[in-house]
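During the reporting period the student researcher (J.K.) took over the structure-prediction task from the postdoctoral fellow and processed the backlog of single-chain submissions. One of the processed entries is reproduced below for the supervisory committee.
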Amino acid sequence: MPDEFKKGLNADGKEWSVKKRTLSMKMDNKEVRMNPHYKRNEEVSVLGKSVESEGSSGLLKQAIDRGDLSYISEFLANKNRKEMMQRLSGSSKEALGVLLLEFVDQPLRNEALEMIREMISSIKDVGMFIKKLKGRMCDFSKLIYLKGKIDYLRFTSMAEDNKDEPEVVVSV
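J.K. obtained the following structure tokens:
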């Protein structure tokens, strides 16, 4: 069988073949083949990714320095966020970890927690990160206490409103 046919077995055990279609084009004096069955040349794709990632990781570093939570939320939705995070310095990772704590109670919590898990192994000052987590927990417990206090005050004010107008029943 010619090299241009791809053979395989499907789940039923039946043989199938797909003819490869290649489209060649010149890009930076290198031939790049475009089809779903052909892997691109690794040198070309690695170069493209590195240039793309360096620019986006530079933007990420600027967003971390400014504390830009909107860009951090876009970063969390990005598919290559792990690669971008690996390019950051240790101090930038620590600052990013603190910013990611803001997303723990927001819709992107799964992505933020995943990034925090991966970041813990590369952060030098884990103690600072733990202190921020404890502060976050204290804030949450304070909110629960205040909500309970507000509910109690509402309940007592409703009880007092009911006591102001006693019911008088006159039997004749």
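The committee noted the following: Confidence is low (pLDDT under 50) at residues 19-53.
J.K. will present the remaining backlog at the next meeting.
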